[in-house]
Specification:
It is an enzyme of class 3 (hydrolase). Belongs to the glycosyl hydrolase 1 family. The chain has 14 helices and 16 strands. It is an alpha/beta fold. The protein has one domain: TIM Barrel (Alpha-Beta Barrel), CATH 3.20.20.80. Strands 1-4-5-6-7-9-13-14 form an 8-stranded parallel β-barrel, surrounded by 4 helices. Strands 2-3 form a two-stranded antiparallel ribbon. Helix 13 links the parallel strand 13 and strand 14. Helix 6 runs parallel beside helix 8 and helix 12 packs parallel to helix 13. About 50% of the residues are buried.
Length: about 475
């Protein structure tokens, strides 16, 4: 038994967290480019424009500094502008991935490298050529690119001038972008995903909307669902032998007690992700969500064939991130702990990471079983990993046994899900296979990778790459197809 012979072992990154070169070769700005540096004790801050064009800052940030240009202020550090400079280091980095034995590399295309404002008719050739070069480098080593079409980075122009995804026009802009990259890369990319962690798209930062009320948010999400469905249909037409999936953040939840109220609360929590999966995998709005819309007075404006579009654009597989589990209770006095895009209730039976995220390897097996039992499509773990402070020694080594222990227990849970529960699992691409800017806090010191990048929280230092102890460990895991994990 064990993993399939063509199991996609690899690693995952996102353009806005690694590429840098935010203003080179015609690339346009995205909402993610307006995020300042932060840390686990000091949240990141955002500069945004109102629909009237006034530049403002999110709470905790002072007035716009003198000399600010658009959304980008001088003397303020924006980590995405630097990343780890993958733009200039991609050959070196992909060679290291190949040395580990990667079968797949999950990455994203920056929409604004292809269409700088998001709504142009003609693409930016320099942006297209960059990804040609990246894909060619992967394929040279037998690494399959697994490409996310939109990883949180909505074009800034669309946020400013269209109120982001609240405008139905953005569907057409996105599908034009998708058609462009499908045609360009149809012979190079066979695995695609539409929107990263679609169930956490909820604000100006991720989808460019200026109001966060339920009506605006769910109308915008309806447009996102339609765009995803249209992308799936286009992909099937243009690249018939490709697979295209969705991507959700999945954190299984346990009822805190056997009280019926806690069990019901747990069902409500699970529906927060099942709603997105039901639409993208089953192709329709579930009854429980329609009832919720009735209670909240939410009325989704739909055109005649919208529901047919959703039904015709269901995904081939489910991609998901798994970092933690949570608990559900009606007792609001229970303490909470940070997590991936959420605050979760603290589980007294589990430990937490340096950043407070619950550590629950068995929860990954539970997540796999829950999704496969409900949806019966292949699953792909496209993010999983441990953010920690690593120490680069004088001899260039990094001893990260804690990361090896974390990954070992999670891969064991994956194997049990396959062998004991019959889950159809396509692959595993741990998050931040090379150190990158942490999305949640904007830090470099919160590191995930098998490869250490010598960059600090202010985008300084040598940018040299160093192999961590986990590099050799993961190399052995892949070489044995998951049989050697100790």
């Amino acid at each position: 038994m064990g993993f399939k012979t063509d199991f996609l072992w690899g690693g995952a990154t996102a353009a806005n967290q690694i590429e840098g070169a935010f203003d080179r070769d015609g690339r346009g700005l995205t909402t993610m480019d307006t995020l300042t540096v932060g840390d686990k004790d000091r949240p990141r801050q955002i500069t945004f424009k109102t629909l009237e064009g006034e530049v403002k800052h999110a709470e905790r940030l002072a007035a716009v500094p003198e000399g600010a240009v658009g959304h980008i202020a001088p003397d303020v550090f924006y980590p995405s502008h630097t990343g780890i400079n993958f733009y200039d280091h991609y050959k070196e980095d992909i060679k290291l991935f190949a040395e580990m034995g990667f079968k797949a590399y999950r990455m994203s295309i920056a929409w604004t490298r292809i269409f700088p404002n998001g709504n142009e008719t003609e693409p930016n050739e320099a942006g297209l050529a960059f990804y040609d070069a990246v894909f060619d480098e992967c394929l040279k080593y037998g690494i399959e690119p697994v490409v996310t079409l939109c990883h949180f980075d909505t074009p800034l122009y669309l946020a400013d001038h269209y109120d982001g995804w609240s405008s139905r026009d953005v569907i057409g802009f996105f599908t034009h972008y998708c058609e462009t990259v499908f045609k360009r890369y149809k012979d190079k990319v066979k695995y695609w995903m539409t929107f990263n962690e679609i169930n956490v798209l909820r604000s100006w930062l991720q989808i460019g909307i200026h109001q966060n009320d339920d009506q605006t948010k769910f109308q915008a999400l309806h447009h996102v669902f339609l765009a995803s469905a249209k992308a799936v249909q286009l992909c099937h037409q243009i690249i018939p032998d490709a697979m295209i999936g969705n991507m959700v953040m999945y954190a299984p939840s346990y009822a805190m007690t056997a009280k019926p109220e806690d069990v019901l609360e747990n069902i409500a929590y699970k529906r927060q992700v099942e709603f997105y999966l039901d639409i993208q995998v089953k192709g329709y709005y579930p009854a429980y969500k329609l009832k919720e819309f009735e209670r909240k007075g939410v009325q989704i404006a739909m055109e005649e064939r919208d529901l047919d579009c959703l039904a015709s654009g269901t995904v081939d597989f489910i991609g998901f991130s798994y970092y933690m589990s949570t608990m559900s209770t009606t007792d609001t006095s229970v303490p909470k702990t940070p997590g991936n895009n959420v605050l979760s209730y603290k589980n007294p039976n589990l430990e937490v990471s340096e950043w407070g995220w619950t550590l629950d390897p068995l929860g990954l097996r539970i997540a796999l079983s829950e999704m496969y039992d409900r949806y019966h499509v292949p699953l792909f773990i496209v993010e999983n990993g441990l953010g920690a402070i690593d120490t680069l020694e004088a001899d260039g080594t990094v001893t990260d046994d804690y990361r090896i222990d974390y990954l070992h227990t999670h891969i064991k849970a994956m194997k049990d899900a396959v062998d004991l529960d019959g889950v159809d699992l396509m692959g595993y691409t741990p998050w931040g296979c090379i150190d990158l800017v942490a999305w949640s806090t904007g830090e470099m010191k919160k590191r995930y990778g098998f490869i250490y990048v010598d960059v600090d929280d202010r985008g300084q230092r040598s940018f040299k790459r160093y192999k961590k102890k986990s590099f050799d460990w993961y190399q052995a895991v892949i070489a044995s197809n998951g049989e050697t994990i100790t």
